[in-house]
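Table 4 source record.
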Amino acid sequence: MTSATDSTAAAPSSATPPANSPAGLAAQPLVMSIILACGGAHLINDMIQALLPSIYPMLKTSYGLSFTQVGLITLTFQVTASLLQPWIGMYTDRHPQPWLLPSGAVATLVGIVLLSMAGSFPAFLLAAALVGIGSSTFHPEASRIARMASGGRFGLAQSTFQVGGNAGSAFGPLLAAAIVVPFGQANVAWFVLLALLSILVLTRVSGWYRGHLAATKGRAKPRATHSLPAATVRRALVVLALLVFSKYFYMASFTSYFTFYLIDRFHLSVASSQLYLFLFLGAVAVGTFVGGPIGDRIGRKLVIWISILGAAPFALMLPHANLFWTAVLSVVIGLVISSAFSAIVVYAQELVPGKVGMIAGVFFGLMFGFGGIGAALLGHLADLYGIAWVYGLCAFLPLAGILTVFLPDVREG
C-alpha cells in the first residue's frame, strides 16, 4: 500500500485529498490529545467490563451459579456488545452521530448501578446486557475518531486507543479485588464515578468530532490504494475473521476462567488469583501498544504472523507448567498474542477504505462475539470435564495463525 507521505507527495498541489484517505489524514495534524482522550475513555469502558469476570467467583459462591450460568452472563454481555457494533459502524459511516459516545456511557452507568443491586441470575443478565450496549455504541465511533486524529499514523492511533482498553481490562480485576471482593457486591457502585468521568470526556471528544465533520464536509470519499480484486479482499477479510476467532476464543479462557484455573490447580485464594490475572492483562496492554507502531514500520501482515502463530509454543507449554512458569508463560503469551488486534483492524481498514466505522464495528464485534461464545462454550466444557482439561484444549488455538499465509500484501510496488 502506498504510504501516507508518498500519496501526499504525488498529489498535485491544488488537489484536496479525501478527508479519511491516508493522504488526507497525513495532511492533517496529529491530534494526540483526542487520541489520548479516546484511549482514556476506552480504559474506563473496559475497566467496567472487567468487573464482570473479576467478581464471578464471588457471585458463583453467593448465588450458587454454575459454570454454565457464568458463561451465559459473559455471552449476554458479549452478544449485546458485538451484534450492534457492525450496524452502528455501517450507519455512522454514512450518517455520523457524535452524540452516540456520551449516550453509550450513560447505558454503561445504568448497567453498573443494576449490577451493584442485582440479586438474581436474570438481573445479572440484564446488567451485563446494558454494559454491552454501552460498549457497542462506544467502539466503532471512538475508533473512527482516533483514526481521524492520527495524522496518517494509523497504527499508532489504533494501538494507543486499543491499549487504553487493555489497560482498563488489566486494572479492573485489581480494583475489584481491592473494592468489591473484600467488601461485597454493593461496592460495585463506586464504579459509577468512573462512568460519570467517561461521560464528561466523551462529551468533549464529541465536540471535537462535530467540529472536524464540519471542517471536512464535502471532501471526496477515499479510494483504495491497492489493486486487489474484490474476491481477494473478501478472502482476506474471512481469513482475518478466522484469526480473530482463534485469538479471542483463546483469550476467553484467560479473561473468564484463568482465576478458576489457578484456584483449581494451584489452590490460590481469589485475591491471589486476581493478581496473576492482572499480570496477564498488563502484558496484553503492553503488547497491544507495541504492535501498532511496529506494524506502521515493518508491515501489519508480519505483525499478525508473529503475534498469533508466535504464541503457539508458549500456549502449548502452559497446561503442563508449575505456578511460577504458569505466571511467566501467561505474561509471554499476553505480550505476543495481543499485538495482532491493532494490526488486524488497520489492515482491514486499508483493504476496505471509506468503511472505517463498519470495519471497526465488525472486528470489535467479532472480538466480543467470539469471546462471548468462547466463554459460554468453555464454561460448559469446564462443567463437564474440568477447567484444566479446557486449558489443554485451548492450547492448540494459536496454531490457527498459519492462516496468515493466505493474506495478500496490500502494499503497492
